[in-house]
Amino acid sequence: MTRCILVFASTHQVMKAEKVLQEAGVRHEIIPTPKELSNDCGMSIRLSGAAKENTDTTEILTAHNIPFKLFERDTP
Q1: 60, 48 in Cβ contact below 8 A?
Q2: Confidence band (pLDDT; 50, 70, 90) for 39?
Q3: What domains sit in the chain, N to C, each tagged with a CATH number?
C-alpha cells in the first residue's frame, strides 16, 4: 500500500495542519518523521493512499498557507 507522508519544518506547522485536516474531515495520523526524510521536525502526518488520491488534502493545506513536503512510501 502506498501512503503519503507530509513533512513540515516545525511542530507548529504540524499542529496547524492537523487542526485544518480535522475540520475538513480528512483521515490522517501524526507519526514520527522518518530520519531519512527530514531532520527539521520530529512529527509528520501520514495519509493513506498515493499522492494522486490526496490532491484535495494538499490543496486544503496550500489554501491555508501551510508549507509542507510530500513523500510517497510503500508500506506492507
Answers
A1: no
A2: confident
A3: 2-69 (3.30.70.240)
Spatial neighbors of 13 by CB under 8 A, at least 6 apart, are: 41, 66, 67, 68
Coarse DSSP helix, strand, coil percentages of the chain, rounded to the nearest 5 percent: 35, 30, 35
For residue 49 the three cell numbers come to: 493512499
The x, y and z cell numbers of residue 64, run together, are 491555508
> Percent of the chain having pLDDT more than 90?
58
Q: What is the pLDDT of residue 12?
A: 95
Element (H, E) at 55: helix 55-63
Grid cell digits, residue 37: 526524510
The counts of H helices and E strands in the chain are 2, 4
Query: Is the whole model's pTM more than 0.90, yes or no?
Result: no
